[in-house]
């Protein structure tokens, strides 16, 4: 039987600018280092026992033409000077036998920190819900982290976020962020 549970995953991001919308996306994938692959968008589970590796190490594990299972966010604009963001949030449980969550989030007008924090909050909220931990997304960062510490069940959360300001000449500007699973 084919085992498709990822053993490793890595985070990557990129941005691209071009007159053509699709080519702008291609340039963002090139910037992320994964343009020569076939992306399959999947739902948001961080597999049990999977190891988060560096982008550099992850890129060494893929080959041109390879099918890559990804959780990704992308956003595009051709509006000059419009701030755009794409983010993937991660929440890992303390128990490595349990699965965690990844979230995709895109926005306009938010800084890298704002978009990244929100994506991280979404992932943490999904994990907390699956663990039976109360989670109030409207609480401050410190209050949420204190809830996690009290429960002792959430190991860590993080995010990867790409932002860009729309090209001044109205060319398509694409932002892309992804978690790439290696099976």
Characterise this structure.
This protein has one domain (8-182): Pyruvoyl-Dependent Histidine Decarboxylase, Chain B, CATH 3.50.20. A hairpin with a 6-residue loop joins strand 6 (83-93) and strand 7. It starts with 7 loop residues before the first strand and ends with a strand. 27% of the residues lie in helices and 40% in strands. The strands form two sheets. It has a five-stranded mixed beta sheet. Strands 3-7-6-8 form a four-stranded antiparallel beta sheet. The mean pLDDT is 91. The protein is flat, with a radius of gyration of 17 Å. The chain contains four helices and nine strands; from the N terminus they run E-H-E-E-E-H-E-E-E-H-H-E-E. It has helices at 21-32, 55-60, 112-131, 141-151, and strands at 8-18, 38-41, 45-46, 51-53, 67-77, 83-93, 100-108, 154-165, 172-182. The protein is of the alpha+beta class. The relative contact order is 0.28.
Keywords:
single chain; alpha+beta; Pyruvoyl-Dependent Histidine Decarboxylase, Chain B; 27% helix; flat
* CA radius of gyration: 17 Å
Based on the structure given, which CATH architecture is correct? Answer: 3-Layer(bba) Sandwich
User: How confident is the prediction overall: mean pLDDT?
Assistant: 91
Order of helices and strands: EHEEEHEEEHHEE
Give me the count of strands: 9
- Content-based structural category: alpha+beta
Number of domains: 1
CATH topology: Pyruvoyl-Dependent Histidine Decarboxylase, Chain B
The proportion of strand residues reads: 35-45%
Q: Indicate the CATH class.
A: Alpha Beta
Catalogue the unreliable spans. none
- Principal-axis shape equals flat
